[in-house]
Amino acid sequence: MNSAEIKLRKAEIEDREIIWEMIQQSIERRRQDGSTQWQNGYPNINTVESDIAKGFGYILTVDGEPAVYSALILNDEPAYSTIEGAWLSNGEFVVVHRVAIDEKFAGQGLVKKLFDHIEEFTKSHGIQSVKVDTNHDNIAMLKILESKGYSYCGEVVLAGGIRKAFEKIII
After folding, report:
1. Band of the pLDDT at 158, cuts 50, 70, 90?
2. Please, where are the H alpha helices in the chain?
3. Which architecture does CATH list for 6-169?
4. pLDDT tens digit string along 76-106?
5. How far apart are CA 133 and CA 154, in angstroms?
6. 164 and 136 Cβ atoms separated by less than 8 Å
């Protein structure tokens, strides 16, 4: 993995099936882990198509092969305007949603690499911070956020559920 070329690129409509496959694998992993996240029909293929159409979809590739999917949204998450708690900042931010990994790449630290690339992307666009939320029972993501230095800010309500919200100041 160390010698592999890892890049973040925008998702194209041709990537729709591979992204949807990654998300379906993640939905199943959440279910097997006993998590309630993503168990109610969201995200779905329409979510993927919408992400791509709006330019939100990004793919982390390993030697050109899609490995991790994420939606990166600038400054726009209405659910984040109401937080039980407090954000670290109120400047511009990148929202990270819908992180999903292809299972053949699981367990290789690629989601951490994804966050490195997202932080680079954020910095290169002159954006102040990264905001992200996850379910209280998504232990894998909670551990990643902790290891990457994200601060727990409180709770937000998203997709009908209460989510733990995190932020990291980048610049």
Report:
1. confident
2. 16-32, 45-54, 110-124, 139-147
3. 3-Layer(aba) Sandwich (3.40)
4. 899 999 999 999 999 999 999 999 999 999 9
5. 10
6. yes
